[in-house]
Each structure stands twice: as structure tokens, then as C-alpha cells.
Amino acid sequence: MSSKTVPNEILIQVFRLLQRRDIESSMYVCKRWYKVAVPFYFQDVQIRENPIKNDAIFSNGLWTRTLTLHKARPNEIAKGLEGLIFLRLLSHLLNLEKLEFQSRFLSRRYLSILSQVKHTNMYSQHIKEIVFYSNNPTERVSHFLACYNFRKSITRLSTNVSNHDLLSTQSKGLSYYLPQFVCLTHLTYDCPEKNDVTLFDILLCCENMVDLKFSSRYPIPPRANSQIGTTSNRHLKRLTLSLEIHTPVYMNYIRIVQPLDYLHLTILGNEREFFWMVEPFADMLQKFKDLRIDFNENDSSILLSPTNSFYNVLCKLEGKRDAQCHVTFYPPEGPVGERITACGDKVNYSASMELFDGRYFAEIFSFIDREGIVTSLAFKQYQLSISDLLYFSNILTYAKTFPRLETLSMDVGFLQLKANRTEIRINCPTPWQDLFNTLYDYLPQAETITCTQENTFRGTDHKYIWDLSAFKNLKSFNFRVSRRTFQETTYVLLNFDYQRSHCGKKMYLDRTSKEISSMLVRANPRLVHNKRRTVSVTIKVHSPSVEINCDPHNLYRIEPVEYST
Length: 565
Prior knowledge:
- Helix 1 packs parallel to helix 3.
- This protein has 18 helices and 25 strands.
- By secondary structure, the chain is of the alpha/beta class.
- The N and C termini lie far apart (71 Å).
- It has a domain at 448-560.
């Protein structure tokens, strides 16, 4: 099929998936492609040069949905779009939905112009969002007033304008402006001053709000206590709060608010205080389909939160729905702080903690699963060495204190482990006997053990012994052999010891395999053909019924030997 015969319907679907620079290179294939590509090319316009070099945007403005003004060079600031040219540009973008300013220097001028526009009917009636963020009070007011001029179409608003600044410059506050945003459904408000705006001030002004994000780093104003129950936001579906907890006023609102699809709390204050406040009505938090609670303490540690109140909150979140409770621990320098999430039939708790050298994990962290709610436990991104096997053993001992634990996952640098009630999967360099002994102490009823990493048996006359005979329920043992083994070894002798019987298997390179030639080129031919260089691996299991599987990558030939007594 040539480019001339491709149907327009297919071209449309293709151009929807392309980046703007790729669309530009495709526009000039032929006139038909140009006509199909133009709407997609001008759908998202980004202006970087000042002034605009041509009027292509003006003539194709009907297709533009998003306009972004990027940062200008310092020596080009004075050459920026003049006010009349900027307004002329907007007058040609009649279907513009989003206007974004990424140049603070240009934004001061353009936002000031937009905030003073009297007749917005000359411009797009579809602007849903004007994006800009600044900590400068004057710029915050200009941005808010610019959005206000397009209040009949604005659906999304992100602002940190101060109610005090509005009153001092316009003699009118948020209570006057916000109710006039008749289409506003998504609002992000960051309270910039102490004793300025409460959550209820926003809710009272925006009764049609669907998604509200409210944050404040300051204590809750006292007047908020008299505002509980004064709001009726029946359209509210998503609520995000980031604030300090010194008084229970906002927690009381969480208790009486209607069920939401999403509730996200970021607690800036003391975690113990939060759990103490929320414990009496924690079971009511099950009314939220998706619940997230983050703790933003700079020195956040699991030592701060595992109290009776904390554990009782987890139990109430798990409730009678038999939810799966997952607990994940990270090192203090890890990317995830302390967090609780509850969605559907899953409750997750993640926290940072140190690995203490001792036997008393449960006593140190006060996290004892008395009610048996935890079904999954994970330790991630810890960097330990093989010499730190004591930490590994302590973690396994701690995991045994969870009565309903179904899955244990560990990532401790030298070893990755995943275990359930009957299976152990380990990913590490060639396993050693102490590791198997430690795994037996944790899960003696294991039926399957799998070593997922390739084992490299290298050296002269090396002998490896893996004694798994203590696993009386073992049905299958699986491991892999690295191809690097045979760069120094002619063959590997596998001895399977079943206490009263044994068998042997000899593993060597399958020279009929086409894939082996590339490896032999890198290897020393003298070492490859030296029959004296062997490795012996003895695997002891409790019964001949145990299935022992070795993955040879189709590169090796294995010769079996019959059982002997």
C-alpha cells in the first residue's frame, strides 16, 4: 500500500499517536497528508521564540487546544510579545482550552493584561485552565483575576492566592470570586498565610466541586470549629488534604462527610496524635473507596507510629471484609515514607526502619500482629552483604510472629527472597549451606525450592554440598547453571544423595548446539578441553521421589545414571 492509497481514517489514528516533531516531518509527504496532519500539528502549540517568526499559528488557530509560553532568554525579555499581539493571538485561538505560562518574566506582563480584559467574548469561550504558579503576591493576584475573567468556562483552577491580598487590592475576597466560577469542578488551593482560609471556606464557595486539593502548613484557624456541618458538597468525589493536626476539626469533618471515591491525607504533624484522633471512628474510613494516608515528618520512622492506636486503626481498616493487609519496610534513605492505603480488599502499610542487630524485632518496633491481619510482609531496597546473614535470620524470625502471613518478600542486596506457605524462591549467587539451614528454620514445610539466579560453579576441583534432607515435605528442587561455568570447567558432576540411595549425572557442553560457539570463542580452549577441571555438586534430599530439575539452557548435555543402593 502506497502513501497515496492510505485511507484518511488510518492516517488520523496514526497522527494521534505521533509526537509533534514527527507530525511535522510527515506533513510534507503530500497535500492530502498535509491536510490531515495540520489539525494535529497545531493542536498543542508551544512558543519559545520572541517575537513569533510567522503567522502560521494565527491562520491555523482554530485547531489549537493548548498554548504554552516557555521561558525566554534574559536578553529577549524586552522583545517579548507586545500586549496587542498577545491578545491578537488569543483572538485567533477560538477553541483554546488550556493556557500555560512557563516563563515567569513574560507571565507578569500577560497575566496583568488578561486580568484587565473587559470583553472576554472576543476570545475563546472554551478556556478550561490557565496554568501558572508563583509565590509573589502580586503575580498570584494577577493569575487569579485572569482566571476570574474566564470564569464561565474555567473547570480547573490551581492557586495559592491569599484572601488577605485580594481584599487589600480588590476590596473583595475569595467568598465573592469563587462562587462565580460556575463550571469549576477541580480546585487545588495552597493556603499561603496564617489564619487566612479554612477548608470550609472553600467548600462553602464551591458547592459543585468534584475534586478538591487543599493544603496548609499553618494551624487551623479557630473559626473552623463553628463551620463543621455548614457545607453541602454532594458532588464531591475526591478530596486531598495536606495539613497539620493540632485540633480534631478536620478529622470530625472526615467522619461526617459523604462516602468519596478518593480520600488522600498528608499529615504534617505528629503521627501518634493523628492515630489517637482517628482511632475512635477508624471503622468509618471504610466508606472511602480509595484511602491514602501519608506522613510527612522529616525524621519519620516506624518507631514513631506503631502504638496500640496505630495497630487498632489498621485492624478497623481491615474490618469484616477480610481484606489482605500488606506491610512493606524500606530503609530510612528509601524513596517511600510512612504510608497507609486502603482500596477495595487491600490494606497496605509502608514505613522506613533500621535493621537492628538483635532478636527482639517485635519488641523494638512494637508491631505485633495480635489479630492476624497481615497477609504479606516485604523488606525492600536494603543493602546487605553475605556477612550480614544475622540480619537476614532476624527478619525471618520476625516474620514468623505473623500468624496469617502468606507471602514474605525480601530484597537485601545480595539476596532476593519470595516465600509463601509451601514455596521458596531465592535469587542470589551460588547458595551456601547456612542459607538453606536458615530457610529451613523459617519454612520447614516447604514443598518447592527454586534458585532463580544462574549458579556459577568455577574453579579447580571445587565441591559444593547442598543438604536439603531436613525438608521432609520437599517435592521439587530447581536450579540453573551459568554458561560461564564451562569457561573454566569441562563438566559438572551432579551427585543426588537420597540418604540410602544415590545417583549421579554428568553435565557438559553440548557441542552440537549452535549457540555454544560464541561462548567457546571467548573461553580458553586449553581450559575447556582439560578433563581434570571438574566441579562436583552434591544435592542431598530426603527421598528419591523429590524431583531435581537443572535448567541447562539447551547448551549442555546431561547423562543420567540409574539409582543404586
